[in-house]
Amino acid sequence: MPTDDKLHEECAVFGVSLVSENEAAGITYNGLLTLQHRGQQSAGIAVVSGNEIICRKNEGLVSEVFSSKVLSSFPEARTAVGHTRYSKNGNSAEGAGPFITEYLTGRIASSLNGTLANADEIRDRLRSHGLNFHVNSSSELVSSLIAYCIMKEENPLRGVIRAANDLRGAFSLIIMTGDGKLIAVRDPNGYRPLCFGKSEAGVAVASESCALDTCGFGFLRDVKPGEVICAENGQITFQGVELRKKRKTAGLCIFEYVYIARTDSLIDGLNVYEARYNMGRVLAREYPVEADVVCGVPDTGLDAAIGYSAASGIPLVSGFVMNRYVGRSFIYPTQSQRESVARIKLNPLTANVKGKRVVVVEDSIVRGTITSTIPRLKAAGAKEVHFLISSPPFVHMCHYGTDIPKPEDLIANRMSLDEIRERMGADSLGYISMEGLREACGKCSLPFCTNCFTGDNGMEEEDPEPEQLELF
Question: Considering 11, 215, 398, 444, which one is annotated as catalytic?
């Protein structure tokens, strides 16, 4: 279980297709560094060189897995795919991506971000065809399914589409074929972000646009829900297909805007910073407080705090010093150990809070570990502490890749608002309303999945198979 009170996303994916043989591995390394916030427990890169797929992966941060020596061991290549992972079960080695799968006439490397709802069904079906699995991993399962479908279709693009139509759940997926094609797929509801960009060097696909920016690729657009993109030799060769879906009302996980995504990313038409800033402005309207200063809990509470300060007129100050050398990848078994690490990570800035009435803005309260922050602010001299949250209370589990724990582990399920406030020692406590959160994220072009807040997963009967676009 994580050391902090945050939710963690499953992983990040990145891939490049270049015009000429170049440093595909190095570009992918830079992309993964930019996406490190989505997964800190393992990292991997695979490239196509000649008739081979060469893969390096291991436990650890991107910079730990890929020393200069490891990076230099990659051959020059036009195509690469990368993966960073956060493991919910603590075993980061067995599920490290990309996954390499061989089949009768070739091999693929695949990187998956997400969770499948029908994993057991697919695994049983593939086993009946003689396929074996080495780990309990959705990534290995998806890679095996795609390889099987490519073999049956005798065409990589058609095989990927056939496989993707069998998947149910949340997934953003990048596949690299042995002949250098790069194929990207986003699930029909768009639960997880995926985008692509272009430069003179070629094409890149990434979980978030910030990785395109840092690697020098101009953002083109998001991959549409249910869309398949194919690139080869640095050129986009196919965009199309509408995959089957089971959900009509669910969409992008709204927690991408609350916490998961990086501030400088653009996701489905809405800048993440703008969304969080808007959350702060809504909080100021819904929970006006007489106070002397406003501060945000680093990092993702800071943008909402700026919005709260702007809307309320209360001065914004730095309330905490953050120790950036305490990694989120360490796992501790007890609540007391998790709270100890939380104390190491954040220390109140006495000069800015002593003798002041303080509004603290945070993105979420999940298990309640962060609640130890309030007594420490008061110990630093704060007269009052008003704790405001830029997401509604978490009361439901997530089955689509975000590590919301068991319902009984969620503090909002165990305690009332007043009981949480008393436990924290706060003078007031407020969560943004669901309506307010939707308003703050109103520029997003997709509907939202809000199951963790509302319990409404939008399940409906499967749509009839849509008419597919002509492939060739």
Answer: 11
